[in-house]
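Figure 6 in text form: structure in, sequence out.
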C-alpha cells in the first residue's frame, strides 16, 4: 500500500508526521498520523499505540492537544492516530448531524447501505492500519496497544476485546461504554448496522464482556464533571460487567474534570505508562 507524506516535524527528539494511505478496506484514501520516538529514529523497532479520537475529531487532534509526545519519547513508544471516518466521499445525510456520518464512523464495519461501501473502520483500524504502519515504520508488531477518547474509547474497548491477539494493551478516556443504551450509540448502530439489536452486541464493550470476551488489564479514566457522563457514557455498566466476569479493570473517577482535552492532557501520562507496563517496556 502506498504512503504519501503530508508533513513531518521534529518533536522531542523524534518525528511527528502526517500521512495518507490508499485504504483497500475503505475504498478511499485515509489520513493518519505517526509520532516516532527517538529510539525509532535510531533504528529500534518500538512498541506502537493506536489512538482513536472522538466525534468530530481527526488524526491531528491528539497529536496537537494531548501533550503525549514528550512522554512517548521518554518511554520509547510510537503513537499512531487515524481519522474518525472516510472523508473522500459524499453520502446522503452524512453531514446533517455532528454525531453521525462524517467524523463519526464509530470504529465499526457498517452493514447498511449506503454506509457499507466505505464505512469499514473496524477492519481499517484492527487490520489494515497496523499492517501498514508496521510495513513503513519501525513498529514492533508483537507489542501493539490501543486506546482512545469518547467514541474512540468505545472503539478501543471493543476492538481491544475482540482482538486481544493483536492489541496486547487497552485503555480508554471517558469512553462510550454501553452504546446500545445511549442516544449516540443507538443512532449510530441503527444507521450503520440496522435495527437488529443482536448485531449490535459485537460493538458494545459492556455486551462483549458479558458475552465472554476478555483482554488484558483495562485502564479507564472518567471525569465526574463530564457533561456526557449520565446520558451517554455509562462507565458504571461496564464496571459492573467486568466485576461480574472477572475482566481486570481499573476505573478512576476524577472530581471536577469534564470531557475535553484538558482532562486528557492531565491523565495521558498514566495511560502511556499503563501501556508501557503491559507491553513489557523497561527503563
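Output sequence:
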Amino acid at each position: 500500500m502506498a504512503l504519501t507524506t503530508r508533513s513531518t516535524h521534529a518533536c522531542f527528539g523524534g518525528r511527528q508526521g502526517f500521512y495518507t494511505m490508499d485504504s483497500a478496506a475503505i475504498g478511499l484514501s485515509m489520513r493518519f498520523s505517526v509520532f516516532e520516538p527517538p529510539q525509532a529514529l535510531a533504528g529500534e523497532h518500538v512498541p506502537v499505540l493506536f489512538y482513536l479520537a472522538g466525534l468530530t475529531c481527526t488524526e491531528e487532534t491528539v497529536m496537537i492537544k494531548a501533550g503525549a509526545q514528550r512522554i512517548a519519547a521518554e518511554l520509547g513508544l510510537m503513537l499512531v492516530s487515524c481519522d474518525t471516518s472516510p472523508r473522500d466521499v459524499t453520502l446522503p445525510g452524512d453531514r446533517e448531524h455532528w454525531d453521525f456520518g462524517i467524523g463519526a464512523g464509530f470504529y465499526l464495519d457498517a452493514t447498511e447501505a449506503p454506509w457499507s461501501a466505505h464505512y469499514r473502520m473496524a477492519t481499517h483500524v484492527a487490520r489494515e492500519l497496523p499492517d501498514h504502519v508496521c510495513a513503513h515504520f519501525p513498529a514492533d508488531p508483537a507489542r501493539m496497544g490501543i486506546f482512545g477518547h469518547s467514541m474512540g474509547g468505545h472503539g478501543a474497548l471493543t476492538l481491544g476485546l475482540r482482538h486481544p491477539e493483536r492489541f496486547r494493551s487497552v485503555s480508554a478516556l471517558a469512553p462510550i461504554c454501553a452504546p446500545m443504551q445511549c442516544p449516540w450509540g443507538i443512532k449510530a448502530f441503527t444507521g450503520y448496522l440496522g435495527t437488529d439489536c443482536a448485531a449490535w452486541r459485537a460493538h458494545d464493550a459492556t455486551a462483549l464482556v458479558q458475552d465472554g470476551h476478555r483482554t488484558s488489564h483495562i485502564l479507564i479514566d472518567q471525569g465526574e464533571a463530564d457533561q456526557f457522563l449520565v446520558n451517554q457514557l455509562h462507565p458504571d455498566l461496564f464496571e459492573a460487567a467486568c466485576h461480574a466476569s472477572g475482566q481486570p479493570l481499573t476505573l478512576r473517577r476524577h472530581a471536577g474534570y469534564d470531557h475535553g482535552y484538558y482532562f486528557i492532557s492531565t491523565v495521558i501520562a498514566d495511560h502511556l505508562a499503563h501501556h508501557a507496563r503491559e507491553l513489557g517496556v523497561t527503563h
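Caption detail: Residues 50 and 73 are 15 Å apart (CA to CA).
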